Amino acid sequence: MTLNNAVRALAGTMVLISAALVYFVSPWFLLFTVFIGLNLIQSAFTGFCPPEFLFRKFGLK
User: Fold this and answer.
1) How far is CA 44 from CA 31, 41, 49, 51, in A?
2) Backbone angles phi, psi at 33, to 5 degrees
């Protein structure tokens, strides 16, 4: 798995988890979804992505 694929998989998983939390727990978990979206936009403009840093530490290339 490449680094880009791992970041995309993590982002998709987090969005699905937040959707489940909104449905089953509380609508306030939409803030988690907003945070994920803002982080994706920020990383597109700056090139800095915290999960990418972690995946590199775990050895993904």
Assistant:
1) 20, 5, 9, 13
2) -65, -40
Cα end-to-end distance, the chain, whole Å: 8
pLDDT digits (tens, 9 = 90+) for 5-53: 999 999 999 999 999 999 999 999 999 999 999 999 999 999 999 999 8
Sequence ranges of the domains in the chain: 3-57
Cβ contacts of residue 15 below 8 Å, gap of 6+? 33, 36
What's the predicted TM-score (pTM) here? Answer: 0.84
